[in-house]
Each structure stands twice: as structure tokens, then as C-alpha cells.
Design goal:
Elements lengths: L2 E7 L3 E7 L6 E3 L17 E7 L14 E7 L16 E2 L14 E2 L2 E3 L4 E8 L2 E9 L3 E2 L3 E6 L5 E8 L2 E4 L3
Parallel strand pairs: 9-14
Antiparallel strand pairs: 1-2, 2-3, 4-5, 6-7, 8-11, 9-10, 10-12, 12-13, 13-14
Amino acid sequence: MTIRFWLMRSMLGAIPFAILPGSLQAQDVWQAPAAVGPRAASVVTDVPWPALNRAVERGQVFTEQDFVTQTTQARATSGLLPLDAIVGKAAARAIPEGAFLRASDVIEQQLVYRGAPVTLRVQIGGILITSTGRALADGRMGMPVRVFSNVSNRTVDAVVQGPAIVNLAGY
């Protein structure tokens, strides 16, 4: 003989259970929906996610070869970056091997370095004028930097457009 009764839970309503004769264990005879309330049973699922296969130093640029796929709980992926959002960016700090990356771990790649030669460009309509200069500050894509122009011997404001390429501000 099987004794049937219902366990009342807020958020779930009645859940039928059965106790088998000669046993003190309750056997669930109905599958409760996953995670419908604070008292509901949680479902743990593992998902593949990119993790670093080596330790990286601050400023190193990430490539696809820097990552391996590891499984982690799906609920732990909140705030983690997928591989396509990481590749081509640089490490904001030293990061150990095996780490999953968050937005605070990556920064845009440094394209202009202080003291390094740069190409200074000005485009007006269909005419492009280029000259050389020297960056007075480090810069990432779209950042304003000061540049010393070798042609005019003056300091000008420019915006980083690519590796060692800046556009004169306002043009």
C-alpha cells in the first residue's frame, strides 16, 4: 500500500509525494518546475566557457589561442565575457591561468605610445594630407592625444584612429 499526500509550498502550490511501505524515505512522484520561486529546487547546468590557458601580464593582447573551453555552472556566467568580446583587447591587470574574464579585466588595445612616432592625418573633403609627429601621451582608439608635429614644430590636438595613426582634431 502506498500513502499519498501533498506538500504545500508557497510559490509552487501542492506537490504530490508518496511514501512507500517499509520505507521512511519520501519519493517524489511529480517533477517540480525549475526555479519558479525562492523555495523551488534549483537546476544546476554546466555550460562551456572560455578560460585562460596561461597567465597574462597587464597590457598583453588576447588572441583565440590564449583560451581553452572549460565548463562552469550557468548561473556563474553572469558578468563573464564571451570569447568574441575578449579577442583583440588587452589585459587591464595581471590575470592568472584558468580565469574566466569579466569586463573589468579587459581594456582596449593601446595603439599610440608616448614618445613614439605617429602619422598625423588631416582629411578635408577628398584630400588627405599626412605628416609625421611624435605622440606626447599614450592612447587607445578614439582617445584624444597631444602630438608634436615635426613639420610645424608645434603641439597639436589629435584623435587616435589606428596603430600609430592620429587624425588632427576638428577635421
